[in-house]
Amino acid sequence: MDNLELLSEYTLFLREKKQEGKKVIAFISHDNIPEELLAAAGFIPLRLIFAGNDELMDASNDYLPTSTCAFVQSCIGLFSLKPSQYKFLDLIDYFIVSNHCVSDICASEIISKYFSISRLNFYVSYTKNENSLKYFKLELLELKKKLEKIIGTEIHDEDLIKSIEKYNNLKKKLLEFSSLDIKGSEKSKIFQKAMLYGPYFLPELESYYEKYINFQTSESVNSKDILLTGGSVFINDGLINLIEEGGGNIIFFDSWVGSNYFSQIFESAILESIENPYDILVHRFKNNIYGDHSVPNFLENKITQIEKIYQDHLKKTGRKLGIINHIIKFCDHISIMSSHLKNRLQEKGIQVLNLERDYSRAIRGQLATRIEAFLEMI
Amino acid sequence: MSLIADEIVRFSSVLRISYNLLTGRDYLKRKKFREKKKLISVALPFSDLVYGFPDLVPVFPIRMHQFEMHKYLTYLGSASGIFGWKTVSNFLGFIKNLGIGDINKIIDEIIENVIDTVNKKYNEMYELGIENGVPTDFCYGIKSLYGMHVSKGKNVEANLNYTIRCSAWNKYLESLKTIENPAKQIWVDVPPRNIGNALELLTENLYDGIRELEKISGNNYDRSILRNHFQVANDIRSYYKTILYEISTSDFYPCNPATFSEILVILNNSFQDYNSNAKRYRDNMASLVKEMKERIRNKIGMDVHNMPRILITPMFGGWEPKSHEIIYELGGRALYADWDVLLLLEDIPITKVSDPVEAYAHYLMKATTNGIGCDNDALSDSYLRIAKKINADGLVFIELFGCHSVSNCFSMLKEKIRRELEIPSISLTFNKIGENVEQVKTRLGAFMEMFR
Predict the structure, then answer these.
(1) pTM
(2) What is the residue extent of each domain of chain A?
(3) Which residues of A touch B167 (CB under 8 A)?
(4) Interface ipTM
(5) Shortest Cα distance, chain A CAs vs residue B196, angstroms
(6) Domain range enclosing B418
(7) Is pLDDT above 90 for B4?
């Protein structure tokens, strides 16, 4: 399935849901947005996980300077230009302004203000301590209140629990799917689709899983194993193809669209032991220590996490993993730590490529050269 | 620069503030080694909590550097120790009036040195930041601050970190841990919005920060000490606002407008840690206001009624310091008021809230909600609010390269200015001091034409 087909299918899906009377809440995708709550209130959560191009980035320059994160530039560009395959953006009823990073705030605010989409807020503390967990709960309850006002009825705890379970099942299946020995590009498409559709995608995901489990291609024999960390690879991005064309295969997707999403699974014991569903979501926020939003231990946690994955992989397969740290141009979170992440991992004998890029076509050749050179080194 | 130097030398309080700004290293060495006090690094005007502990000294890290200070300023400093600053200042003014060429030159050099040496050091720190791994994509302020910590961070016991809406800022604070032998980090999480009991949470977070400071200090927190400091801090804010809104809006200035801009720059820099001594700073601010008012009353200074007031903002993260001179040469007067745009010149409400920590939480929350932490809609309203308050005739907006927070709302702001203020505005891009002076001249030249 190519991206055009995915987007066109998704347009039909959203139209169908709108006809059923559902409303759509969009947000710039990040790992602390409680999509379960949105779904429990009867909304369709729409994560903006679409990559950019020159035209989309250029279109954002009426609103923000060019030295803005290429991803959020592209998000603004999508609303400004509304390319034909993204017409489903017209179906959005609400937009969440959140603070994953300051570019998230600015771009979400611009999208809401200039494209006349009603705004909802959901802000998250930067540090992880008892009080930031309490604050997270405040935000959840505030959002709940707003959603209830929109729908005119209460969101029952049972509905939220059911929603949490549904997303949990989706994530569990994605986790299983992620362990298949298939091409990274195939995995990535499934991850993207799952995050776009949410639990509606579960039956399809199960059939994909059944299909692929019998047709694992042993990609790893013929290619270099890669862990992709840093910025996500979004829908319509050719980066994974470049890596595969250069002889690499992404085994681990350590990003929003990837393990950062499906690793946030609640064990049954947690679901059973925590009565209040909002506390379950708080528990997830607390445990989300690998997400790039939080300070002050992001770098330490990330190094520990990558080193563990690297060692486990080496032990299991006898093969080394190369690390590609994907830095979307002008990303505050990933960029500032990039040289330190690289140095620290290289000290441990783990090879790292800091791959910085925007979404311009012109950079493709340069990216291919850098990726090929890195893969040769592994 | 000679006209600026000529004016500054007549304000003994400015000389004192400048001297204290530049001689921080000696002062801090004395505090650290002789008096056994401990240094706590702060940035942005977030030093107040540290003043709750008399044996802790807040420092904006650039002040730990040795500046290439003019030797005569050192002599002046020594002389002031004996004769007092006012006497020294009067003496210099007297000598200058005699028109003795060499002495005039020396005095000009001294003042020029005060302004330029800080900027030169900023540029040095900027380069050091990049050399030590800060990507070039980040703003001037963050690169310089990182450089300051690389070079001088080892002298401080801790960094006092407040989370704000700028993600680059929060991540930069974490990145200080990557520097060899990093100082302890004390974090105060500021909730992004004032919802529910967020204020209470912030108060608790401040208390957590205080407990960490207690550990470093070895002394217990004493609310009366903090409360007294907040009174001093409020006095400073009050004097600052008098200069910004009473004096800067008048038609007669106590000095030429370029000097006035220079004073605002010095205040902008020194306000972050009050030159490590809040009471001394408060006294100097009081003298400054008094001197300015006296000069105005005695008609010493300059009639500026026909010079357009140009608000230059935001400049705290980096801007071209030649801007105000250029504007002055083009017939305008440049004003800087960043800290009030970000609501950091608001009073800490100790008269309304009995617990000083809770009062500080109120102050921080207000700044977060409507100033330094708000969204662009509210932030652009803040720029408008200040432009109105100072009766700005024009606004120069600094689009700081790599800033994704306070200097990227020009499109929104421009629209509001057009609609609500109907004054001309222009944006100037900035990357590094001195890099683009010619372009700044050209752009400001075209801009100032609008006032003729």
Answers:
(1) 0.94
(2) 3-156, 163-377
(3) 99-103, 293, 332-333
(4) 0.95
(5) 6
(6) 306-341+375-452
(7) no
